[in-house]
Design goal:
Layout lengths: L11 H28 L24 E2 L10 E4 L9 E4 L3 E2 L6 E3 L3 H19 L4 E2 L7 E12 L5 H7 L1 H13 L8 E10 L5 E9 L14 H17 L2
InterPro entries: DUF3313
Pfam family, one: DUF3313
Organism: Pseudochelatococcus contaminans
């Protein structure tokens, strides 16, 4: 004999009230995220400005707007007719720390600049050694890479991780991650790449770039320099891909 199951009454009024509360909550979060988006502008200091044609660069007169760049990370570029397959060796110059009046370092100490420049030289050298023999002397099949670190921003202590874990910051940074844009309170690195034929010293390729972690990369926010280092590694990967 089957026992009749008790059907609980549905309180439609309560459900409607809770749905309205949820809608108001979501609406509030969206408004907060929108406000944070406006607040976290380059002028407010949440993000650094886009890289520019730095007047002190050797390639400054040849750099032109890059119409293929949709992200704003490589806004200026120069390239001549080049055949990378004819080159098998590369000289990597020591990284130059740019000191021009139009540099874009934000609250970065001289010691931090030195740390980042050494890290940049090491990472680019290691990455490019997968494609080229790294040498010290010019030759007929040799390129010379000159890197100039033109700007950097360190991650804001404490606020970097919190801005990815709290509700409003999480929404904002999720939106930025989808867009491929810079997250709030996080570090970045700006630099110039200039590649020459080592024998003739003719400029073959140049660009200015800005790199940063994915906006939801929480791990890159716990150390003040880690986000900049992530950007350096991304930049080295992208340059290596140019030669493949």
């Amino acid at each position: 004999m089957k026992t009749a199951q008790r059907v609980l009454p549905i309180d439609l009024t309560r459900i409607d009230s809770e749905l309205n509360s949820l809608e108001l909550f979501v609406s509030k979060i969206i408004r907060i995220a929108a406000a944070l988006t406006m607040t976290c502008s380059p002028l407010a200091g949440c993000m650094t400005a886009s890289p520019k044609v730095y007047e002190g660069l050797a390639s400054a007169g040849q750099l032109r707007p890059n119409p293929q760049d949709k992200s704003g990370r490589i806004p200026y570029k120069y390239h001549s007719t080049k055949n990378w397959q004819q080159y098998s060796k590369m000289i990597v110059d020591p990284v130059t720390v740019y000191n021009g009046r139009d540099s874009q370092f934000k609250d970065v100490t001289p010691k931090e600049k030195e740390t980042l420049s050494r890290y940049m030289e090491k990472e680019f050298t290691q990455k490019l050694s997968q494609r080229f023999a790294i040498v010290n002397a010019p030759g007929p099949d040799t390129l010379r890479l000159h890197l100039t670190m033109t700007g950097a921003k360190i991650t804001t202590p404490l606020l970097g991780p919190v801005s990815r874990l709290d509700m409003a910051g999480g929404v904002y940074n999720t939106i930025q991650a989808v867009r491929g844009q810079e997250g709030s309170m996080s570090g970045s690195i700006s630099y110039a790449v200039e590649i020459y034929d080592a024998k003739t010293n003719r400029l073959l390729y140049a660009y200015v770039a800005k790199q940063y972690p994915n906006a939801m990369n929480v791990g890159a926010t716990f150390s003040s320099l880690e986000a900049s280092k992530v950007g350096i590694r991304k930049g080295a990967d992208e340059l290596l891909a140019e030669f493949k």
